[in-house]
Each structure stands twice: as structure tokens, then as C-alpha cells.
Amino acid sequence: MKRIAVLTSGGDAPGMNAAVRAVAKVAMAKGIEVFGVKRGYLGMLHDEIFRMDGSYVSGIIDRGGTVLLTARCLEFKDPKFRAIAAENLKKRGIEGIVVIGGDGSYRGADLLSKEHGIKVVGLPGTIDNDIVGTDYTIGFDTCLNTILDAMSKLRDTATSHERTILMEVMGRHAGDLALHACLAGGGDGVLIPEAENPLEMLVYQIKERRRQGKLHDIVLVAEGVGKVQDVEDYMREKVSTEVRSVVLGHVQRGGTPSGFDRVLATKMGARAVELLEQGEGGVMVGIENNQLVTHPISFAWEGTRKYDIKKDYELAVMLSK
User: Fold this and answer.
1) DSSP assigned state of 65
2) 310 found inside a domain
3) Are 123 and 272 in contact (CB under 8 A)?
4) Strand partners, 295
5) Residue 249, burial from CB neighbour count under 10 angstroms (0-12, 13-18, 19+)
6) Binding site as annotated, residues for substrate
7) Binding-site residue ranges for ADP
8) Are 64 and 252 a contacting pair, CB within 8 Å?
9) 306: pLDDT confidence band, cut at 50, 70 and 90?
């Protein structure tokens, strides 16, 4: 394989730049020409494809976001637009592409591979940690640490004013961020979409803590559960303590990637190039039991997740009592 391309798609995640850098530098070291695609599939459709050199990826490993930019592209669901995008790759002699993004990005890559014979390798770039076939996604660790920093700051206010603070965090339909933040940050409760989340139990725990003399709480609420304001309204009627809700929002997406995310992204990016060099395609790279693994790219939505989130949820509930 002589020419490959790399793109970032979907929501940005810290560590994407590290993955882009690794793909470019490893490919160049192997004598493979590398092209960047601006704005994901939208840029592929609009022919925003350029040849990359070493200077383009120099100094980006510690930057959040994505230097290649990212965008949504609803047109890519239409076969005729995918054909245009594929032709923009083929006219440059691009035989393979590395797609860094979530499961929606993987689906687009899978269609490119099946319909137009382009070799694709997917790298899991999303803060949500919601891709089957990998224990961790690029950006999850950095986002988790951002949440932990916010928890520490909110705890100061919660303690000073004797409040219960409900903190809504991202994760889409997955509760990983909320659950890991509760475990790592000493949270006083957690609500995730993978569990029943009885609010009556949370109310009971808060009342028990007040009886024992604790005067503040930080409760993690995954966005997949529903609106945190609804939880706040319910809690206000059930507990005597003051209740406030905080939506952490898009600050979770940004920031300098952690060392873990940089190393993970770098190893995955290098592995993606190796797979394309070997003629592999239609696959995703993941990490399981601290080892890089590959699966068919469709495994991201057809496979079964190995992580037992309910077990960790039970632990978090036990520790928050």
C-alpha cells in the first residue's frame, strides 16, 4: 500500500491529535504517502483532502481537539454521496484510510469498505467509552480527569454551604464516565442508564448521611439517565438539605490529553498503519487486558461488551453509603 489517508469524525476527543500524529509519522517512516481529510466525511465529500508532511503533525501530541477538524455529515448516509467521497480518495490513489471516531464513524467506514473496496481501519476516538471491542477509548481518561477536577472544586462549595450537588456528566448512552468519576472521586451517589437507579435509595442514603453528621454530597448523573433538572426537582421534595444541579457540559471534551490517552492513541495509530501495510481492512483496533486487539469493524455494534459495569455500579453504591 503506497497511499493512505486519515480523518477524525464525530465528537472531538483529547488524544485524537496524538493518533493522527502516530498514523502520519509511522506511515512516512515506512515510505507510505499520507493524506489528511479535513472535517471528517464532510471534507471527504467536499474534496478537502491534502497531502500531509512531518511539519503538519509536529507539536500536536499535547493539543486537545483535532487539527483535522470534525463535522457531522448526514449526506454520507446516501450511497450516491458515499460514491462521490470514495472517488475523491481513489483519484489520488488512496487505497486505505484510518478513521478516528465513534461507532457512527465506524459505520461510515464499514460502508466505504464494502461498497468501494477501500481498506479501512477504525480507531476508537470518543470520550464516552461506549465502543464494543475495546476496554478504553481515546479521550476517556482525559475527560475523566476533567470531571474529577470539577468534583474537587464543587466539593468545596458543597461543603461550605452544606449542599447536595447533582453533577451531570457526558457519556451519551453509556454510564462509564459517571461511574468511574464516582469511584475515583469519592462520589456520594451515581445514576447511570445501565442500572435501575432508584431515586428512593439515593434519598435514603442522603438522609442517613445527614443523620450520621455528613453535611454535603456530590452525586454523579450520567446524561443518558435523563435531565438532571428533573432529578433535582424530585430531590428537593424529599430531602431537607439544599439541592443544586450542575451540567458540566462541553468543557469535558477539551484540554490537554493525559499521558494515558497519548500513549494509547499513539500505539493504536501505529497499529492501524501496520494493518493497512499488511493489506488488512474492515477492522477496528482496540485494547483489551492491556493488549492491542483487532475486531471486524462491525463488532462495534454487533459484538458484546466484556466490561461488567453493573459490578462496578454495585461497588460505587456500597462505597457511597
Assistant:
1) S
2) no
3) yes
4) 284
5) exposed
6) 126-128, 163, 170-172, 223, 244, 250-253
7) 21-25, 155, 186-188, 214-216
8) no
9) confident
Q: For 205-226, write each residue's pLDDT tens digit.
A: 899 889 998 889 999 999 999 9
Residue-level pLDDT at 33: 98
Q: Looking at the predicted structure, is the pLDDT value of residue 197 above 80? A: no
Query: In the numeric block, which cell numbers belong to residue 231?
Result: 432529578
Strands (E), the chain: 3-8, 33-37, 49-51, 96-101, 119-124, 163-169, 190-191, 217-222, 242-247, 283-288, 291-296
Q: Does 309 map to a domain?
A: no
Confirm if 292 and 49 have CB atoms less than 8 A apart.
Answer: no
Q: What is the DSSP letter of 138?
A: B
Looking at the domain assignment, is residue 65 inside a domain?
yes
Q: Quick one: CA dihedral 176, 181, 186, 191, positive or negative?
A: negative
Is residue 261 located within the same domain as residue 132? Answer: yes
Please count the structural domains in the chain. 2
Q: Burial of 164 by CB count in 10 Å (0-12 exposed, 13-18 middle, 19+ buried)?
A: buried
pTM score above 0.70:
yes
Catalytically active residues, by annotation: 128
Residues 21-76 pLDDT 10s: 999 999 999 999 999 999 999 999 999 999 999 999 999 999 999 999 999 898 99
Same domain, 161 and 128: no
Residue 312 lies in a domain: no
Q: Which residues span the domain enclosing 149?
A: 141-254
Q: What is the pLDDT of residues 87-137, one digit of tens each?
A: 999 999 999 999 999 999 999 999 999 999 999 999 999 999 999 999 999
**Cα–Cα distance for residue pair 30/16, rounded to 1 Å:** 21
Instruction: Tell me 71's DSSP state.
Output: -
Rounded mean pLDDT of 175-197?
95
Please give the Cα distance from 24 to 162 (Å, whole number). 52
Extract the annotated binding site. Answer: 11, 21-25, 72-73, 102-105, 126-128, 155, 163, 170-172, 186-188, 214-216, 223, 244, 250-253
